[in-house]
Amino acid sequence: MKSINILSFLVLSSTLSLVAFAQSFSSENPIVLPTTCHDDDNLVLPEVYDQDGNPLRIGERYIIKNPLLGGGAVYLDNIGNLQCPNAVLQHMSIPQFLGKGTPVMFVRKPDDGDVVRVMTVVYIKFFPKITSLLCVNETVWKVNDEALVVTGGKVGNENDIFKIMETDLVTPEGSKEYRLLHCPAHLGCKNIDVNFKDGYPRLTIVDDDKKFTPFVFIKA
């Protein structure tokens, strides 16, 4: 009989200890079970803002401008006697390169939202005053074999993907400055810079991660 009482006491003590242990975890130290959801899946990237502090929106028109002293707006021009203009250049504060720029539109798949966020896929499309119907579909940015940004790309082509990245720079008015990157799928991103090529200030891709031209976005 004594052995049965002792056994019962031990079982009761063990049960009470387990209950106390469980209560301590459920109230003060809850156990978080692993799930199949990753933090990155719920990560909301910062919005890209225009010069007035409003989020950039898919489908709206903007002027891309270099805010540095002597810089200017990005524009489309025909500098090679081609059937359609395809050179992506930057105006400058010198007589032969003065201008107001060519409006662009950021586009992508409709289900990705209507706000442009940093380091997300966008395609960049000019909206120039084109009189030839042959050139209407030749306005999407791409990068050619000479590392020059030109038009003739296609929305949806993985080689014609661009992204916008934040910088630590701000204009004297307090607007955020950004860098543009060419980011073909399955390859690393490269900065967009402005360099003279054949006498013209051309947008080009560069291998140096520290070399880039800052840009702001102005609602057109």
Automatic annotation (TrEMBL):
The record's listing under SMART domains reads:
STI
**Is Metal-binding there in the keyword field?**
no
Q: SUPFAM superfamilies attached here?
A: STI-like (SSF50386)
The UniProt GO MF terms for this protein read:
cysteine-type endopeptidase inhibitor activity
Q: Signal sequence: where? A: 1-22
- Stretches assigned to coiled coil: none
PANTHER family annotated for this entry? CYSTEINE PROTEASE INHIBITOR 1, KUNITZ TRYPSIN INHIBITOR 2
Listed name of the protein: Kunitz-type tuber invertase inhibitor
